[in-house]
Amino acid sequence: MPRELITDDPDHEKDIELRLKQVIDPELMVDVWNLGLIYKVTVKEKRAVVEMTLTSPNCPTSEQLFHWVWHVLTKADYIDECEVELVWDPIWDASEMTEIAQLQTGFMF
Question: Which fold has domain 4-101?
Answer without folding.
Answer: GMP Synthetase; Chain A, domain 3 (3.30.300)
